[in-house]
Amino acid sequence: xxxYLQQLTVExxxxxxxxxxxxxxxxxxEPLAKRPDGYHEIVTVMQAIDLCDEVAIELTDDGxxxxxxxxxxxxGPENLAWRAxxxxxxxxxxxxxxxxxxxxxxxxxxxxxxxxxxxxxxLLGLNELTGRPFSPTRLAEIAATLGSDVPFFVYGGTAxxxxxxxxxxxxEAAPEFWVVLVTPAFSVATAEAYxxxxxxxxxxxxxxxILASVKxxxxxxxxxxxxxxxxxxxLSAWPSLRALWKEVVDAGLPHPQLSGSGSTxxxxxxxxxxxxxxxxxxxxxxxxxxxxxxxRNRLASAKEDYNADHRSQNQSEGGGQ
Length: 321
Hints:
The protein has 321 residues and is an alpha+beta fold.
């Protein structure tokens, strides 16, 4: 946890902390049977990437305030970051008092987990500012009350997630790679995607191969193990995304996949130079409202020059931030 916080920390003062808030991709996702609570059981391998929002938190004596530089992101109790601050203060039995500022770079609604990451980082930041009253395990329990993906971001890195996604088993770091992220100007509703999914036992994919590739740090095997059991359903139901998929495949996006329920498509490259070439080619072919970004599956220290913020990427009003 200490190393992870060090990687995230941009600034630290007595009553204020600024943290990076990473995005994620799903290297493997297999939806299973529907649960009595309406969710689906899933098996997924999530990977944090260094495309990051920034979350600044300041302790105050006057309730919770939230500001965001992205106009379509709510700034009240409907925002997961706000609810994370409420959940933390309730669990700690203290009066809520926090000023939160979100600087968004992760496209909302793209299946990259930006809102969930923001919520987890608020929990981590408040825990740090208040003397670490909670263990990582307890923070993950609080995170699970907020959303299925939130507990993953308490740990970051590479992890196997089960249940509805809230049961997190951190793994050894996956072999280093680079991703080219392609995000259209529209989102895919997760609930709608799962509603359209039909569980077929005979078609179930096992995560064993990708888990072995992570354990053995075998990038070639990992590339051959990428899987998203929702992709066929989502691409069938959203014709615009299906058209974008064809476009990026035709343009040579390597090892194309859908992240989560979408709408972000990604491809995996072995080197940064390859990712730069692919992203440049895509920008030359795709409409300006489609955001193309490059990220690495490593989080360096915030002081190191590895954040995807300053890599070449288009930041259109429609798809980027």
